[in-house]
UniProtKB/TrEMBL annotation:
The lineage of its organism: Eukaryota, Sar, Stramenopiles, Oomycota, Peronosporomycetes. It comes from Pythium oligandrum (Mycoparasitic fungus). PANTHER family: CHLORIDE CONDUCTANCE REGULATORY PROTEIN ICLN (PTHR21399), METHYLOSOME SUBUNIT PICLN (PTHR21399:SF0). Keywords: Cytoplasm, Nucleus. Residues 147-159, 203-213 have a biased composition (Acidic residues). The keyword Nucleus applies. One of its GO terms (cellular component) is cytosol. Pfam families: Voldacs. This is Chloride conductance regulatory protein ICln. It is found in: Cytoplasm; Nucleus.
Length: 213
């Protein structure tokens, strides 16, 4: 569940960062800190069990805390005192992150993240100030660039380099607009089954060689 306890904290209540243990690649540095960030976690549990799951396993869900973005992880520490102090994920576990402002998807502007773990499927970080969204997105994007997924790199090579799952707000909106246009054109240009498009007889026949001379 990637739950953080008091043992994961350093003096002062901040997350204890990893130190190099024989390899510089394992060392972790703090990149950005965001206070008063509300966390909303969605699990893959059945809807009937979701409320019970949230209460028992996610007691800090939908509460405020401080979000830390490091060179390795995304860590959220709740403001409320509890045995479970927060949650943390490896940046490589975040398969997608994007700014969301669509009230139909979520009532508040947030940073939407898809998590590649067994139970938690989605996490939304809601900052107290809207202007923090771009800063939060930028920090997470930089950390993601520092932690490429080896399997995704192999897949990207096989697909010719495609498969980047980091989107900024304009890309999300433009992609949605492009999808709407494509759907509209498809409906307008659709030809009913069994109906041949009109054409003049011989329109696409090859020209006679004598006519070309």
């Amino acid at each position: 569940m990637n739950v953080l306890t008091s043992g994961d904290l350093a003096v002062g209540g901040t997350p204890a960062l990893r130190t190099a243990a024989g390899s510089e690649d394992e060392e972790e540095f703090l990149m950005a800190t965001f206070e008063r960030v509300e966390i909303h976690i969605t699990t893959e549990e059945d809807e009937d069990d979701e409320n019970e799951c949230m209460a028992e396993e996610l007691p800090l869900n939908q509460t405020r805390g401080t979000l830390y973005v490091t060179t390795k992880r995304v860590l959220w520490i709740g403001d409320r005192t509890a045995p479970r102090v927060g949650y943390g994920w490896e940046v490589s576990q975040i398969t997608l992150h994007a700014i969301s402002r669509d009230p139909a998807a979520f009532p508040q502007p947030c940073l939407y993240c898809q998590i590649g773990t067994e139970k938690i499927s989605e996490v939304r970080f809601v900052p107290a100030e809207d202007k923090q969204l771009s800063e939060l997105f930028s920090a997470l994007s930089k950390s993601a660039e520092m932690n490429p997924d080896d399997e995704e790199d192999e897949d990207d090579e096989n697909l010719g380099g495609e498969g980047d799952w980091i989107y900024n707000e304009d890309e999300v909106e433009n992609g949605a607009r492009a999808a709407q246009i494509a759907a509209h054109l498809d409906s307008v240009l659709h030809i009913a089954p069994g109906v041949e498009p009109p054409s003049e007889p011989g329109q696409f026949d090859d020209a006679d060689e004598d006519e070309l001379l």
